[in-house]
Amino acid sequence: MQKASSPFVVLPQEVMDLPHPHEFFSDARRLEERLRQVVQGEIRFDEASRALYATDASNYRQVPIGLVVPRTIDDVIATVAACREFGAPVLSRGGGTSLAGQCCNVAVVLDFSKYLRNVTWLDPSRRLAHVEPGIVLDALRNEAEKHELTFAPDPATHSRCTLGGMIGNNSCGVHALMGGKTVDNIEELDILLYDGTRMTVGRTSEEELAAFCAIDTRNLSASVIPTSLAVSQATTSISFYPRTDSMWRVLS
Q1: Which of 2, 26, 106, 172 is the S-S candidate for 22 at Cβ 3.0 to 4.6 Å?
Q2: What is the spatial distance between Cα 46 and Cα 109, in angstroms, rounded to a whole number?
Q3: Which is nearest to 110 in space by CA: 57, 157, 41?
Q4: Cα distance between residue 8 and residue 132, in whole Å
Q5: At the topology level of CATH, where does 119-251 sit?
């Protein structure tokens, strides 16, 4: 009887001996030293920390160059500036709940969830809240529900996903059919580009977008087109929808 072939491919030894992509970045030690000089938050370039942040809720694995846990927005600005100086890519990480490897990359990972996780202000009359990107969705909703309000998008990971990650993924959830996706509930973003440009962006009509692009497409493309942003938002302004009994009756 012929032996069944294995479904697994055995790679040649020369392929197995190739360095991991993160090992191609030769300035890791110098970058770590610079970050420790300019950042007040936590700098982690040890193997254990990099292993912990090599994955999310998916099956993907990418060992990062290092990890920065910023305490302030100034830490974020300083981190991006240092990475730009050494040519290191940057990845903003939310709660690590993504299923398609969005939190995995050979880059310097920024984890906002430890310190930058606050509601700066909440205005029930305007149904707006200003939050930091590391805040967990349920923490925001708990504050809103004190005023019989809620944040409409509610993915299954609501107890641990962050608003920054939700914005990056444009998260939805069962109530998004009524209240819209995350993109439909954003009023304003404070963003930082890889080149150091910091700007505030908000709702833009098609006419306004066309007017911006008509001025000089080459210079404005990086600031107008969301997909070109190198670093995710630092703070967000979120709109709320009322949480009423009729909402739950309709959905049930």
Answers
A1: 106
A2: 13
A3: 41
A4: 45
A5: 3.30.465
User: How does strand 186-192 pair with strand 42-44?
Assistant: unpaired
CA 28 vs. chain centroid, Å, equals 22
CB 153 within 8 A of CB 179: yes
Q: At how many degrees (to 10) do helices 73-86 and 28-38 cross? A: 150
pLDDT tens, residue order, the chain (252 aa): 555 565 666 778 777 777 777 778 899 999 999 999 999 999 999 999 999 999 999 988 999 999 999 999 999 999 999 999 999 999 999 899 988 888 899 999 999 999 999 998 898 888 888 899 999 999 999 998 898 888 889 899 999 999 999 998 899 988 788 888 988 888 888 888 888 888 888 878 888 878 877 765 544 433 333 322 333 443 344 555 554 444 433 332
Do the first three CATH levels of 16-111 and 119-251 match, i.e. the same topology?
Answer: no
Instruction: Determine the CATH number of domain 16-111.
Output: 3.30.43.10
What single string gives the DSSP state of each residue in 43-78? EE-SHHHHHHTT--SSS-----SEEEE-SSHHHHHH
pTM over 0.85: no
**Contact at 8 Å (CB) between 128 and 226?**
no
**Under 8 Å between Cβ of 73 and 59:** no
> Residues 6 or more apart from 69 whose CB is under 8 A from it?
41, 42, 44, 111, 114, 115
Q: How do beta strands 231-239 and 186-192 pair?
A: antiparallel
